[in-house]
Amino acid sequence: MITRRAKYAIQALLCLAGRRGEGPVLAGDIAAEARLPGPYLEQILGDLRRRGIVASRKGRNGGHLLVRDPESLSLLEILRAVDGPVAPLPCLSKTAYAKCDDCVDETTCAVRALLSGVHEATLRALGKTMLADGLRLRQKQPREKRHARTQGR
């Protein structure tokens, strides 16, 4: 299961992707459109900014911009940007490998063996799923339906 932080990051990035070319978007406008808590969103945008996914401008015409092309920004990159490693076990992590404390031998660990294939398939799926895919799905929904769903929260 992804974290609430990751879900909010994806929602914010979909908002920015949908407004691409319109100039910077205020965090408050992103929060209102995606119905996200403002202070928490600011922290998430900071993480995305540090990872080079969004940029921010200060001043009168300030706000946040999506720097990356939604066609090349994968869910895997987004999850790693806001949550860090996505592995179910530390010994399966590609970016933060660590030996499990209770493991005697990784090569014979049944838990590692069971989760390894699932983890690899998940990484492939997340790596192939781009932010633009979500934007296309979002654009297929009638505006009224999108609005009604967010109002029902």
Textual characterization of the structure:
- The chain has 153 residues and is mainly alpha-helical.
- The chain folds into 2 domains: 1-73 and 130-153, Winged helix-like DNA-binding domain superfamily/Winged helix DNA-binding domain (Arc Repressor Mutant, subunit A), CATH 1.10.10.10; 87-129.
- 54% of the residues lie in helices and 5% in strands.
- It has helices spanning 4-18, 27-34, 38-50, 75-83, 110-128, 131-140, 143-151; strands spanning 54-57, 63-66.
- A two-stranded antiparallel sheet has the order 1-2.
- It is elongated, with a radius of gyration of 18 Å.
- The model is unreliable at 146-153 (pLDDT under 50).
Question: Can you summarize this structure?
Answer:
This protein is mainly alpha-helical and 153 residues long. It has helices spanning 4-18, 27-34, 38-50, 75-83, 110-128, 131-140, 143-151, and strands at residues 54-57, 63-66.
